[in-house]
Design brief:
Blueprint lengths: L22 E5 L2 H9 L4 E6 L13 H12 L6 E5 L29 H4 L3 H15 L3 E6 L5 H13 L5 E5 L2 H5 L1 H7 L3 E3 L1 H9 L17 H21 L5 E3 L7 H10 L3 E4 L4 H8 L4 H13 L3 H9 L7
Helix pairs in contact: 1-2, 2-4, 5-7, 7-9, 10-11, 10-12, 12-13
Bound molecules: phosphoenolpyruvate and magnesium ion.
Length: 321
């Protein structure tokens, strides 16, 4: 066991039996990255690149992009940084990429799909990421948002590898990707579950709408089944290829300490969250073994409701009382 408290996080996160579950940070800017490093984050699990460019009406130049990405990489020398290509559209419109007149923006041309309507932007971003990675010593992984099919995953991975980025993966945030992850992960090096969107699409409930918050709950057993399907698919892809195929979580769910236990039990290999959540998540994970986390995950999967899943798991975690 480690000297973890609810107030501080020292890195090198492990369960009670020593099973490692690295805790990473979600960031958008160099300033965020400095705070995340100071908070003990073991790396970055989600660098949201769109935020640096939200107020622009033209595509950022190569030099602007290299500088913005490098401002994050420089805080994590020798550590993993997962950078996401532009996730424009729906809750994150970008004037130079997205069409504000779509009737259903959450189901529209967003994320990786903008490559269909604005070809070239993605290749130029990958080139800038590769150039920034060369300048810094971070272990840079790149992933695409809103991937829906194994073909999209393979096409993105090939593009990233061709740009000189050796570790390329996809976000799993569309139910079709969760259900086909065995094929997706044959063609990609890793996956990261975006549980904010995965929940919105599984429950058909707009994540921006307050009155639907109870549906937009990652404890919904339907969402947990999709997470399990993703991890099971990764295990199959691992067996088929002999490559590691890690599956992280970078949605808000990773910041809920009791849900973090369930995610580890479902087979998730890293958790990425807002830096202020790191100490509490580490403290709770340190109280369970991997076998206990697996038992609690099975209990949550079998629950009839989000509330029953949450209450049942929390009852086994006295540190949360
Ligand atoms: C998600 O969908 O869970 C996610 C991490 O991405 P974003 O919140 O930026 O859509
Ligand atoms: Mg998302």
């Amino acid at each position: 066991a480690q000297a973890q408290t609810l107030a501080s996080f020292a890195g090198n996160n492990r369960l009670a039996d020593g099973y490692p579950v690295p805790l990473l940070a979600n960031v958008a800017t160099g300033a965020d990255a400095a705070k995340a490093a100071a908070a003990g984050a073991e790396g970055v699990g989600l660098l949201r690149t769109e935020f640096a460019f939200l107020d622009r009406d033209t595509e950022p130049t190569h030099e602007e992009q290299v500088a913005a990405y490098g401002a994050v990489f420089e805080h994590f020398a020798g550590k993993k940084v997962v950078i996401r290509t532009l996730d424009a559209g729906a809750d994150k419109p970008l004037p130079f990429l997205t069409n504000a007149d779509e009737p259903n923006p959450a189901l529209g041309v967003r994320g990786y799909r903008t490559d269909r309507t604005s070809p070239g932007v993605l290749e130029r971003q990958l080139a800038a990421i590769a150039a920034a990675a060369k300048e810094h010593e971070a272990d840079v992984w790149v992933m695409a948002p809103m991937i829906s099919t194994p073909d999209e995953a393979a096409a993105f991975t090939a593009l990233a590898h061709a740009a000189g980025l050796p570790t390329a993966g996809v976000m799993v945030e569309v139910p079709s990707a969760a259900l086909t992850s065995a094929h997706i992960l044959v063609g990609a090096d890793f996956a990261s579950l975006g549980t904010n969107d995965l929940t919105q699409y599984a429950m058909a409930a707009d994540r921006m709408l307050g009155p639907l918050a109870a549906l937009n709950d990652p404890w919904q057993p339907a969402v947990l089944h999709l997470i399990k399907a993703t991890c099971d698919g990764a295990a199959a892809a691992r067996a088929a290829t002999g490559a590691p195929k890690p599956v992280g979580v970078c949605g808000e769910s990773a910041a809920d300490p009791a849900l973090a236990v369930v995610l580890a039990g479902l087979g998730v290999t890293t958790l990425s969250m807002t830096p202020r959540a790191l100490p509490a998540v580490a403290a709770v994970l340190a109280t369970v073994t991997v076998a206990e986390a697996q038992r609690l995950a099975a209990e949550a999967l079998a629950a009839p409701s989000a509330q029953a899943a949450r209450d049942g798991v929390r009852a086994h975690l006295p540190i949360l009382d």
